[in-house]
Specification:
The structure is a homodimer.
Chain A (H helix, E strand, L loop, with lengths): L4 H8 L3 H8 L10 H14 L5 H8 L4 E6 L6 H15 L3 E6 L4 H13 L4 E5 L9 H4 L5 E5 L8 E4 L1 H14 L5 E5 L5 H16 L9 E3 L4 H12 L7 E4 L2 H13 L9 E6 L12 E5 L1 H16 L7 E4 L1 E4 L12
Parallel strand pairs in A: 1-2, 1-3, 3-4, 4-5, 5-11, 6-7, 6-8, 8-9, 9-10
Antiparallel strand pairs in A: 10-12
The structure holds a DNA duplex (16 and 16 nucleotides).
Chain lengths: ~350, ~350
DNA sequence: TTGTAAGCGTTATCAT
DNA sequence: ATGATAACGCTTACAA
């Protein structure tokens, strides 16, 4: 049987309220006689008492939990984002529940449902996938705050990456290196993230006076395997591209393997640029040129907004986090590796 | 204000108990007149009622939560394990809380504490790190079951990988290929996992009549950066190794980059074998030969044991999950890539 | 087949 | 400075 506050009270010879006040003395200031406090503390220690967060949460209407919904746990980018969230959350006594939808609508829905049932104090929606649907009405009456990362939202505050600008930047870089046939490895989905990067790609092409060619855009399904297939398909074109921009690093890794397997070289035969700057990016050879978004910062900003909202403060509704192109070897312009 | 069971009861013109019975009809069989059920269901629908898991948990002494403690979220291996746990857990209505200790003792302790406070129904301890300490006494009285993955434990059931055997297998493979100077990229810590792999390495050496050389064992700190430094150090030895076995894939990736940067080639100049079979392993060029442990299976088995324990069934205390050496290109024996 | 009432463990409010 | 009491939202005997 679990030790309750009553057990402690009995052993210490005080009332449950006193025990409660001792336990929460860090949060709520309350005058307690030193002797009493000592006896309570001692009783807690000998009994090994730990308060029940469920009971506390029921009363306080707070679970102390923050839910994070990411599209794909196997993409190292998302753990980084969640690390940012976690650091800020833990600093304020919140714990996080990390959930991966695997870009599956049913899974997403059931997770949101569970999060709401658990009365999480906040939800962070990460990524631009359309498998997640959450309306203002759904969360209304739940005393739960919501913030989005990397997805547009009219109803909830958002922390955004300038994907269009970053896509443009990456493509312009390739164009500036003299490439005229630049391909884009996309991912078919309603993911706004990828679509935006593609828009930037297209804008750069058009601004550079290069015609957009549908043949040069292929699906890579977010994964290494998809990127590999995309790379093969692209390089088998009658007029293959001289540069490839992949919408994420995982696909870029796959594309790089495909290029090498065809006996071609990066960047000599094909230049390659990725997106995310995952940990392995700088340890590939050639090291991958990629768009780095400070993913940790992204998470931290989102969590700060959440905290502000929970405190009832009027939080900033829209925050942008910068991106930068990390020029390594795969684009042919840099020599930097690590 | 949130909708409670009383609101539904009032609207449907029944008592709260009846509403409760309708809501939980899937779990607990109870006779209810169809007409009544319909009215309740309708009221639930119009009001948008969702039960409060905190209240339910307080009463039932169940949170419906499973805590997972991993050493390092940025190693893609752990998300895979947790996926295995999750799949089984979700199938039985449990949700998981994913926590990364970052191999930090304070973080680990505070997470375990939080998990216990939240009255999680089960805890899965993943990885052999010594930053995690959890005794039978600590969980006693918490109605919380514990299971370990990849770590020895006398007190809790464990799902183990035969790290010694796998380490031996990988090393024997290299030895069989004619290598006599085989290095080991380790990770300094009390992690039993790495130590066991190293033991296997050593056993294979001795069984093969090759002397163990302390110089050939270097620290790689679990990461690509550490593996890179280790690779450089190893290849700068007056008598460099002709083969390197890294205790995990992240370090193997780093070592591969180091070797290439020194103008040497894998596997011609140095053969390389990793451990984990992370997603990128097969997309490196040369593709990484590595020990594959069915990490998903590992998680699934652990969760099944947890469920058995929670059901009060006598679960199997020790389960072993197989490993196999995936021979790709980096060891020089295979041609297989993807 | 349905309703009443007690209680899960905690904290806020009001007394003392 | 401390204690008694009510309440948070739910489930489950027990009663009807």
């Amino acid at each position: 049987m679990a030790i309750t506050i009553h057990d402690v009270a009995r052993v210490a010879g005080v009332s449950p309220s006193t025990v409660s006040r001792v336990v929460n003395s860090s949060t709520v200031a309350y005058p307690i006689r030193p002797g009493t406090r000592d006896r309570v503390l001692e009783a807690i220690d000998t009994l090994g008492y730990r308060p029940n967060d469920l009971a506390r949460g029921l009363l306080l209407k707070k679970s102390g939990l923050i839910g994070i919904l990411v599209p794909d746990i196997s993409n190292p980018y998302y753990p980084e984002v969640s690390r940012g969230i976690e650091d800020v959350a833990n600093g304020r006594g919140y714990k996080v529940m990390f959930c991966s939808t695997d870009r599956d609508r049913d899974k997403a829905t059931s997770y949101i449902d569970a999060l709401l049932l658990k009365r999480v104090d906040g939800i962070v929606l990460v990524g631009g996938g359309d498998e997640v649907e959450l309306s203002k009405e759904t969360v209304a009456g739940y005393d739960t705050q919501v913030v989005c990362i990397g997805r547009p939202s009219a109803t909830f505050p958002t922390v955004r990456v300038d994907n269009v600008g970053a896509g443009r930047m990456a493509t312009e870089h390739l164009l500036g290196l003299g490439h005229r046939r630049v391909a884009f490895v996309s991912a078919l989905s309603e993911s706004t993230t990828v679509n935006e990067r593609q828009r930037g790609y297209r804008e750069a092409l058009e601004a550079g006076g290069t015609a957009f060619e549908p043949d040069l855009v292929v699906d890579g399904g977010f994964t290494e395997a998809g990127g590999y297939a995309a790379g093969k398909a692209l390089m088998s074109l009658s007029e293959p591209p001289t540069a490839i921009f992949a919408a994420n690093d995982r696909m870029a890794v796959g594309a790089m393997a495909a290029i090498k397997d065809l006996g071609l070289r990066v960047p000599t035969d094909v230049a390659l640029v990725g997106f995310d700057d995952v940990p392995v990016a700088s340890y590939l050879r050639p090291a991958l040129t990629t768009v780095s978004v400070s993913s940790r910062e992204l998470g931290a900003q989102a969590m700060k907004i959440l905290l502000d909202q929970m405190d009832g403060q009027s939080a900033r509704r829209r925050v942008r986090v910068d991106t930068r192109l990390v020029i390594r070897q795969s684009c042919g312009a840099g020599t930097e590796s690590t």
